[in-house]
Write a structure and sequence with these properties.
Keywords: Signal. Pfam families: GW. Residues 1-73, 76-154, 157-235, 238-315 form the GW domain. InterPro entries: GW_dom, GW_dom_sf. By secondary structure, this protein is mainly beta. The chain folds into 4 domains: 2-70, SH3 type barrels (Roll); 74-151, Roll (SH3 type barrels); 155-232, SH3 type barrels, CATH 2.30.30; 236-312, SH3 type barrels (Roll). The chain has no helices and 28 strands. It has strands spanning 2-5, 12-14, 25-28, 36-45, 48-55, 58-64, 68-70, 74-86, 93-95, 106-109, 117-126, 130-136, 139-145, 149-151, 155-167, 174-176, 187-190, 198-207, 211-217, 220-226, 230-232, 236-248, 255-257, 268-271, 279-288, 292-298, 301-307, 311-312. Strands 6-5-4-1-7 form a 5-stranded antiparallel β-sheet, with no helix packed on it. The radius of gyration is 35 Å and the shape is elongated. 30% of the residues are buried.
């Protein structure tokens, strides 16, 4: 264990625990006032409890436990890379090491940096709490209790996408300059401003808070919005004319649509069961990221689009 000698009044350092036979006086405890020491033995006698301590690795003597301020052991101290804002400053302060650990000294009150965006470089845990080493504008400040921070989201992955969508679910959502709660993000507008707008999705980001898309309207990049606000459609890779015939057979779980399923603007026409066992003409083929679809006619009348897997006897 580590400790600091800080209550020296009335205490003496001895060669053994006080009143043990053969002990000799080493010196006044005040000679070691405010010294950081290592405790390696503890002994209880009828007169009290005593620690043997060392200064700078050298065994010095025995001293009453009441003379020491015991430091907290650090359970772990690991590198991190987090962004946060200092928001809860009451009762918190910066220290040169995790609070109440060996060598920890006051740097300044947390209120000195209230409202600041900070970078967290290390995380340490003691029996008392969890602490972060803080850097502001590239300058190392010190260690601060975890409870002082509001943590920003971390982007776990980000990728370029190119998909059409419609903003449909706007309640509780807003558009942001970056994925929500990422450091530096600012509010652009309420999502309701873009309700029912057809948009293009440009990027997808996954954070520890959710999944967000960057989108554009009419070619203009607007911002980032929670994925739950969008109806996302499939891209059509091709849509070409064909001249085929077939039979509507595998109807379970399938339906006819005005466009290839889940492409922009598609609407339900009917369940595929309405056309079961019908001989049809297939006039167009389209492929999306989801599947391949056929546009079909019955008795010369164009009906809609069905998944290719619905048809048999295709010629």
């Amino acid at each position: 264990m580590t400790a600091q000698v800080n209550q020296t009044s009335g205490h003496t350092v001895w060669s053994e625990a006080y009143k043990i036979q053969g002990l000799t006086k080493i010196g006044a405890a005040s000679n070691y006032q405010n010294k950081d020491v290592t405790l390696d033995q503890k002994r209880k006698t009828q007169h009290g409890t005593y620690y043997r301590f060392a200064v700078n690795g050298k065994t010095t003597g025995w001293l009453d436990t009441r003379a020491f301020k015991l430091y907290d052991a650090v359970e772990y101290n690991k590198a991190v890379n987090l962004d946060a804002k200092i928001v809860n400053t009451t009762g918190n302060a910066f220290w040169t090491a995790p609070y109440f650990s060996t060598g920890s000294k006051l740097v300044t009150s947390a209120s000195t940096y209230a409202g600041k965006d900070v970078k967290l470089l290390r995380e340490a845990k003691t029996v008392r709490g969890t602490y972060y080493q803080v850097q502001i504008d590239g300058k190392m400040i010190g260690w601060l209790d975890k409870k002082a921070f509001k943590f920003y989201s971390t982007i776990k992955s980000e990728e370029v996408v190119n998909r059409p969508a419609v903003i449909s679910t706007v309640a509780g959502h807003a558009v942001w300059s970056k994925p929500y709660e990422v450091v530096g993000t600012t509010r652009v507008n309420a999502a309701s401003v873009y309700q029912n707008n057809q948009v293009q999705l440009l990027k997808k980001a996954v954070t520890d808070r959710g999944t967000y898309y960057q989108f554009s309207v009419g070619g203009k990049t607007i911002g980032w919005l929670d994925q739950r606000a969008f109806d996302i459609y499939d891209n059509v890779e091709y849509n070409k004319s064909v001249q085929l015939t077939g039979t509507v057979t595998n109807v379970v779980g399938n339906a006819a649509w005005t466009e290839p399923y889940k492409s922009l603007g598609t609407k339900l026409i009917n369940q595929a069961t309405a056309y079961q066992n019908k001989q049809v003409s297939i006039i167009r083929e389209a492929k999306t990221t989801r599947s391949t679809y056929y546009q079909f006619q019955i008795d010369g009348k164009t009906i809609g689009w069905l998944d290719k897997r619905v048809f048999t006897n295709i010629k």
